[in-house]
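Q: Please design a sequence for this.
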């Protein structure tokens, strides 16, 4: 297989698991992460592991993927890597934003809100626009983003991220509606509560969330990054060509099981 995929947020969590799984499927992996310290080492180890799996067909860049200058700088390099061939997938898995309430001791500021909505929502549109203009997405390409039930349930500290994810879902619908006639599809994958580094940033009560999820989830466990990776792998198959403008739930039925708290 000569196809390449682009993963924004490739180092850990859902993005990291998806990078590994798609490498196992034979895809070349292009990834962006924005890590420092110990997590940077984790990203480097993930890159090396992927290289072992797919024969070195991996490129990781440690920089701010939500920055417009980054897009302009690296898209020509991506085109060179793929030989001008369209990407099979662009996955938006960036988990960086402000987690705080709208009111209280530390209410969210306009700067924090604007940053969160841009990084976790609007940047998906700008990447897709630039990739489209560079002819790096085409017939058969998938645009995927990750969402959660926090988009329709109120959660402590989740407000800014919820707004960003709702924006992303609207962007996904519109991309799929406008580009569907070209064979380009856009969908969101909704994960359940997943014990990742990102979850620990949302609430100090994350361990309680995990334990409660195990009780309320019909399958009596939390979602894993590997669950999401397998779903994304499935969505790249030709059989999924007609799935568009949709939310695909990969949570064991968790979203049908009442309150998260």
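A: Design:
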């Amino acid at each position: 297989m000569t196809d390449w995929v682009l993963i924004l947020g490739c180092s850990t969590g859902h993005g990291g698991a998806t990078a590994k799984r798609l490498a196992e499927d034979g895809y070349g992996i292009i990834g962006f992460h924005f890590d420092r310290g110990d997590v940077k080492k984790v990203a480097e180890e993930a890159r090396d592991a992927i290289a072992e799996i797919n024969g070195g067909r991996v490129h990781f860049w440690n920089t701010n993927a939500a920055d417009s200058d980054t897009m302009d700088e690296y898209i020509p390099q991506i085109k060179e890597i793929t030989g001008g061939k369209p990407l099979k997938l662009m996955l938006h898995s960036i988990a960086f934003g402000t987690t705080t309430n709208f009111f209280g001791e530390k209410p969210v500021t306009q700067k924090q809100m604007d940053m969160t909505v841009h990084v976790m929502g609007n940047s998906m549109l700008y990447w897709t626009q630039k990739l489209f203009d560079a002819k790096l997405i085409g017939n058969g390409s998938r645009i995927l983003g990750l969402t959660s039930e926090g988009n329709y349930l109120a959660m402590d500290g989740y407000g800014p991220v919820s707004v960003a994810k709702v924006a992303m879902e609207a962007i996904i619908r519109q991309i799929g509606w406008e580009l569907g006639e070209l064979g380009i599809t856009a969908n969101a994958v909704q994960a359940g509560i997943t014990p990742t580094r990102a979850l620990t940033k949302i609430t100090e009560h994350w361990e309680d969330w995990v334990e409660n999820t195990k009780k309320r989830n019909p399958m009596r466990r939390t979602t894993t990054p590997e669950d999401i990776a397998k779903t994304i792998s499935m969505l790249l198959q030709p059989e999924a060509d007609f799935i568009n403008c949709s939310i695909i739930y990969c949570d064991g039925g968790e979203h049908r099981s009442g309150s998260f708290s």
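Q: Thanks. Anything notable?
A: The first strand starts at residue 4 and ends at 8. The domain at 4-256 is CATH 3.40.50.720 (Rossmann fold).
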